[in-house]
Amino acid sequence: MENNRLREHRNRAGLTQEALARKSCVPNQVICAFERGRMAPWPRFRKALAEALGVPESDLFPGDGDGKSTNN
Q1: What total number of domains does the chain contain?
Q2: Pure H helices in 1-69
Q3: Does residue 72 lie within any of the structural domains?
Q4: Residue range(s) defining the domain that contains residue 51
Q5: Is 43 helix (H, G, I), strand (E, B) or coil?
Q6: Is residue 66 part of a domain?
Q7: What is the model's pTM?
Q8: What is the mean pLDDT of residues 13-20?
Q9: For the domain that residue 15 is a member of, what is the CATH number?
């Protein structure tokens, strides 16, 4: 799976996975899977998480060029 900085940004924002899930409308189990690298984030979830954390997608999910994914 791709490398990401989701946990780092979530911790910096002082949010638990549950709080980020509520704020982003992304299920907690999905956030956990993203943080552990067990699932590559889908574009709609990438966008929601970036908006909830107030950072560009490319900061959360570096190494993807423009920070976008071509998966669903």
Answers
A1: 1
A2: 6-12, 17-24, 28-36, 43-53, 57-60
A3: no
A4: 6-60
A5: helix
A6: no
A7: 0.81
A8: 97
A9: 1.10.260.40
In a domain, 44, yes or no: yes
CA-to-CA dists, residue 30 to 21, 24, 50, 66, angstroms: 9, 11, 14, 22
Longest dimension (CA), the chain: 30
CA dist., res. 12 & res. 66, Å (int): 23
| Residue at 26 is within a domain | yes
- pLDDT tens for 30-59 read 999 999 989 888 899 999 999 999 999 999
Residue 34 has a CB neighbour count (10 Å cut-off) of 25
Sign, Cα dihedral of 24, 13, 54, 71: negative
